[in-house]
Specification:
- By secondary structure, the chain is of the alpha+beta class.
- It has one domain.
- It has 3 helices and 6 strands; from the N terminus they run αααββββββ.
- It has a 6-stranded antiparallel sheet, with helices on one face.
- A hairpin with a 7-residue loop joins β2 and β3.
- α1 packs across α2 (27-50).
């Protein structure tokens, strides 16, 4: 099965440098890493427009048909598969991975939102050699094998 890439070269340069664009892990891990990068770029677009990170990932999905984008539904992620599996699902996941978005440091402005976030893609299959990924609003993406990735793990090359 071919691995889909979600604008990875552009997003890699933004997050971890263009060298990472040529050295993705294979298979589902590559898809999960690409999804993390796509979501990070979408979160940055959301912040640029709405002046804060959202309280949940549903805010990144497209608005209802005919409705204008707002901070309630900005539409910064338009890939239908990604929207359904990661943004609108009660348990965000893709094959062999679960995704967790954790906003942090609530803002006290009338608009609300958050100053920071962490995003994690955790491998849930049986092959302990498969990687998990973690990234924060600071843009540093880490990778770990055998356990959920965190800030203290090795940075993606």
């Amino acid at each position: 099965m071919a691995c889909r890439r979600f604008n990875a070269p552009l997003l890699c340069a933004f997050l971890v440098g263009s060298a990472a664009c040529v050295s993705h892990p294979p298979g589902w891990a590559s898809l999960a890493a690409g999804n993390v990068r796509t979501l990070c770029a979408a979160l940055e677009q959301y912040k640029a427009t709405c002046e804060a990170y959202p309280d949940d990932l549903t805010r990144l999905a497209p608005p209802s048909r005919g409705a204008k984008p707002t901070c309630e539904r900005l539409g910064v992620v338009s890939d239908a598969v990604l929207v359904e599996s990661l943004l609108l699902s009660p348990r965000p996941s893709s094959p062999n991975y679960t995704f967790a978005y954790v906003p942090d440091a609530p803002l006290t402005s009338p608009r609300g939102g958050f100053a920071h976030y962490q995003l994690r893609a955790t491998y849930i299959g049986k092959d302990r050699a498969q990687p998990s990924f973690w990234v924060s609003d600071a843009g540093r993406m880490t990778v770990a094998k055998g356990h959920p990735a965190s800030a203290s793990d090795e940075a993606m090359p």
